[in-house]
Amino acid sequence: MIKKPFIAANWKMYKTTGEAVSFAQDIEEMIEDLDVEVVVCPPLTAIKSVSTIIWQDKPNFKLGAQNMFWEEEGAYTGEVSPLMLKELGVDYIIVGHSERRQYFAETDAFVNKKVKSALAHDLIPIMCCGESLERREQGLAERWVNGQIVAGLEGLSPGDIERLVVAYEPIWAIGTGRNALPEDANAMSAYIRSIIAGAYGDELAGQVPILYGGSVKPENISDFMREEHVDGALVGGASLKPDSFAKICMNSIV
Fold this sequence. Notes:
With 254 residues, this protein is α/β, with parallel strands linked by helices.
């Protein structure tokens, strides 16, 4: 099945509200007519302002958030709930990013709770997975990713899988300038799809967009998009400048 390219921007802890608004204004005309699913995930403080600029009446442009807690409300200082994000116009949630796992000790069990909560509140999770360089060199990459995928999908229904996005991000390629080869990204994406197919069947597995993330740039996105099982990209540093991000979106159409 041919899917529309899916390009998501993860701004991480960059951009004040003013900077985010300026970016949104600049990018609007650059990618307005592209047949690409574009998701921008600003910092929490900028989500509302960005949503009022370009994500109201454009079906290919969606708003995402970088994290959320799984409860609707409660004494969870510093957290944000799915209800709060939904009210801001958020459609997608990045879940289980390697930086959340590394710096905030998020476990596979936490990721599973967030995936379930997102789906229960009509939010689409972009569930991240990926191995460290050490595990890859030890030949443990597939085993590690298998564990993350199986745990993350625990208890999900076939209907849930229809609304899932998976992002494969080898940790050693995030923000390092070193990226996996397109064939490596494709091989792991195919493996991830086979895990989903084993639990939910080939048809559903084929519908799940699988993104690659890790030093994606305008110069290399087309190489990844030519691979059979890579459906798009989760872009970090190269998504922080409008011209760079626009070129990634343009070059994703191959």
